[in-house]
Amino acid sequence: MLRDLFSPFRYKPILDNSGSNESPLSRNKKPKVKNQQQTLKRLWRYLAVHRIHLILVIAMVIISSVLSLLGPFLAGKSIDHYIVTKESKGILKLLAGLAVIYLFTSVTLFLQNYWMVGIAQNTVSKMRNDLFNHLHKLPIPFFDKRQHGELMSRVTNDIENVSSTLNSSVIQVISSILILIGTISVMLYLSPLLTLLTLIIIPLMYTGMKWITKRTGRLFKIQQRNLGDLNGFIEETISGQRIVKTFSQEKKVIDEFISKNSKLKGAGFWASAYSGFIPKLMNGLNNLSFTVIAAVGGWLAYKGHISIGTIVIFAEYSRQFTRPLNDLANQFNTVLSAIAGAERVFDILDEEEEANDEKNMYDFPYVDGRVEFCEVSFSYEEEGKTISDISFAVSPGETVALVGATGAGKTTIINLLSRFYDADEGSILIDGKEIKKIKREDLRKHMGFVLQDSYLFQGTIRENIRYGRLEASDEEVERAAKLANAHSFIMKTPGQYDTVLKQDGSGISQGQKQLLSIARAILADPSILILDEATSSIDTITELKIQEALQRLMEGRTSFVIAHRLNTIQKADQIIVLSDGQIIERGSHHELLSQKGYYLGLFNSQLRKI
Ligand SMILES: Nc1ncnc2c1ncn2[C@@H]1O[C@H](COP(=O)(O)OP(=O)(O)OP(=O)(O)O)[C@@H](O)[C@H]1O
């Protein structure tokens, strides 16, 4: 029965990503701890920009802390001087004094909060900008290896964590330290003996706090990691909703979510539970200190060593004394959790940008479109070669089709040509210039992509086409749409060119998406074109429209076609047949058929399927 009462909170060891079933509380399972001091230093660099406002905040905190110490002191002294002696004028003076103190306290509290919120918001906004900026300079391999939702969690949750801590904790920490120093000083001045008795609780507090924070620090990190993991999973399953439903995998997805969620709950529960012990511990120690002061103070007053007013001041200060300690302890957890968040943000900022490290880069204002691969080898992983010893040359305006079984290396060749990855060996030349010596931005300016999964952004049809060349006029956008055979379907949509597409164009058909992406490429007017043929079946009429639009687009441009259906590439100038990352056959369609090799087999097998 009792067990059941606690069952929702019982902690079950939950499998970690590593597959270990050790509890997050386990001593040996520390997540990699980066130097917290270094993280704080980097955070400080962001804060230091606002140093004038920080000085103002500190000044306000000092004034409000002194004022809050003054209140109880005046009240205690007035008991001895005015209340015991029944002097009514003095009492009025005291009341007026207290009113002024509380008014000033409110003003200083308002100002310190106002400035601090400004500092916090500006700081995290700058961090968010830096992070987003940096994310866009990171190489494709970085994104290939990470869950996108997890990255989003860093830009949103982790930065938010830093923001809320800056909002509240900086003021709390400074004012707690000041109040603590002020309280102890006044207490020492009034009665060193009672002060010493009050301070006895400090070692007890320290030991208790150390025990708790050791655990919470570790748990907050695990909690944030698990939250990132969960966010990644949510993002993945929402964007892959169609696949989940098509394969009826709802149960599997929900089960996996429950498992990840319960992992998060495990760490979250214990992180919160341990930090929740802190106020209870403080409260208990506070009561202990209060009892000691009442007993010893009462005895001293009975013996005539101190006044009643002093005991009142002491009782009030002993409360004020544990409150900042309590606050400091609570803030410690919040700060730890923010440091964990900041660390995750800095981790990304430390990732190396897509390198443009070579000096003496070529200018690349105009491209004829001659492409050469010379003995190129590359691997995604340390071991083995994804493609090896690839050599071929393409003249300007030629169409090259890359053919081969799935995983043969077709996309990899394109990844290397567009410098999403750099070749390990050999060289790739455009117009005789080594592409490693061309800035990626300049290189990609001359390349156009029409991919299977043409990505459309949330925005109007016009904006989506204009993504190909932002400065294009409305007339140019429409001309491109007409050449891409997209104009007639656009005119049938409710807002025509101003129809707003949902994110990833989920409101229009696959074929229409392709037409828009062709229009975008026509507008961009690249010299080198990459076409990744759609594998999904599109109705015959749309298919014809797409083929016609593609022919127009390819005219006069060096085009690489990743071909999945051989009937569409028969007119290609060259067909390169790949197998296991190597070129096994090469030639025109007729030459390859007459070679009676792998291509002929592939062609016949596709013919049989028709
Ligand atoms: N980012 C990556 N990290 C590690 N390995 C990868 C990565 N991308 C592709 N590979 C591997 O490299 C090999 C070649 O892949 P590639 O995508 O070039 O094949 P493909 O011929 O384009 O296949 P498909 O027709 O299925 O698109 C495959 O074995 C694939 O698993």
From TrEMBL:
The chain crosses the membrane at residues 52-74, 94-117, 170-190, 196-213. Keywords: ATP-binding, Membrane, Nucleotide-binding, Transmembrane, Transmembrane helix. Pfam families: ABC_membrane, ABC_tran. It is found in: Cell membrane. SUPFAM superfamilies: ABC transporter transmembrane region, P-loop containing nucleoside triphosphate hydrolases. CDD domains: ABC_6TM_Tm288_like, ABCC_Glucan_exporter_like. Residues 55-337 form the ABC transmembrane type-1 domain. Residues 371-605 form the ABC transporter domain. SMART domains: AAA. The keyword Cell inner membrane does not apply. One of its GO terms (molecular function) is ATP binding. It is a multi-pass membrane protein. This is ATP-binding cassette subfamily B protein. It comes from Peribacillus deserti.
